[in-house]
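REVIEWER CHECKLIST
Item 1: Sequence provided? yes
Item 2: Single chain? yes
Item 3: Sequence as submitted:
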Amino acid sequence: MTIQTFTPDKVLVSEKKDGTLHKEFTDIIMKEVAENSLVMQLGKYHEMDGKQEKTVYIQTDGVSAYWVNETEKIKTDKPEIVPVTLRAKKLGIILVASREVLNYTWEKFFEEMKPQIVEAFYTKIDEAGLLGFESPFANSVAKAAKTAENIITGPVNYENILKLEDKLLDKDVDFNAFVSRLSNRSALRDARDGDKKTIYDKDTNKLDGTVVVDMKSKQFKKGDLFAGNFDNLIYGVPYNINYKISEDAQISTIKGANNEPINLYEQEMVAIRCTMDIALAVTKDNAFARLTATAENV
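Item 4: Structure as written out by the authors:
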């Protein structure tokens, strides 16, 4: 008896439309989302063991050591441990394509569709976790900075960058990253101290010795800059991405040229639905600060 295997470069999309894909593809998509998402690059991952909701325990204060004399009892600390609930929310995208994609092999199909899926997912994850934009989660980096009153208003320059850092250093927060955008590069290069020495290294993309990562989002305005200890941004992914293809659905959220919902059956089109689940939480508000050009952006 011959065992049938799924060979991506030979099996047509029309032969397998129920959303069950070879693990090779789901792993590739998830890997590329993780490599491009700033939340997933900077944040701290927690295993969710395939559960939609999981409670993790975070230590908020460090444990101290004590000098002791001979035979003296060593003092002990009781660190503060707080529960944080990670609750996953579903993120979805629907792509509409011509019927010819059903004749693609799965390998060709994903080469065509993968960039759109990856970009859509990581953009929404970052906008939710960093900016709180259209977010189903209770907190975000932007909201945490506002709650902690760690907001500096003004242009990106040397003085304001130091003020941004001081917001965190004054609270004993050892920040480990800045989040910026490409349009801030010229301002960062012009940030100079009294000796006219720049504090931005364009070759390593570091600001005052700390790594800078650039966010790609229309919602993140020019002149905005986050600083923080991103160990206090945690996330979890309970399961892999799921896919489903339909040839007969009516897509109410996408309008055709006549401003009517697209009917796939009538227009010989197909829709590809992709969903993934992710949980996000901020564990310490004062771990983040924000520099913004105007108070309207806060």
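Item 5: Key structural point noted by reviewer: Helices lie at 23-36, 38-42, 106-131, 141-147, 158-169, 185-189.
Item 6: Recommendation: ____
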